[in-house]
Amino acid sequence: MGQGSDGQAVIRFRAAGVFLLLxxxxxxxxxxxxPLDVPWVTAANLQPLAGIRADLSLGPAEAAHRxxxxxxxxxxxGVLLPMAGGRLFVSPWASLARTVxxxxxxxxxxxxxxxxxxxxxxxxxxxxxxxxxVTLAHLLVVPAxxxxxxxxxxxxxVRGAVPRPRKETSQGSTPTISRVGxxx
Length: 184
What we know:
Strand content: under 5%
Number of strands: 0
Largest sheet: none
Distance between the termini: 54 Å
């Protein structure tokens, strides 16, 4: 992963993940929670798939643009959340479940926050598409990336490039102070 000990590489990897995650969330917050100056606002969409059907009725190009925009908005979270977690050896299903749950909660938070922003409207289909985007990004990138990192780590262990953990040695007996009595 990098120079230095394995622990320092993991810390740098996680720090990069946290930094990129925060930068992405700030960008998403700016894009979705800024007030819009519009002459009129559509009603909130609380019926699942109604907005997607309406997008599909606009034609293939416009539908692909609108649906793709919602799929891609939070998709980087599918990669950045596990990267910020920094776990290399983890169950793929547990990782997917944690990532999808966190992505959907972030999407829900954004949708609920939009209720107080002028010009922004709550759309349940945004929540669904954002969650699907996080899921697809995670499935397409994270398992292959983790496999590659695990293989790289195994190769380094075989070559002896990564120091193996040392056994802890005894540092002697615990020091005592002779003038201090034992509590009752």
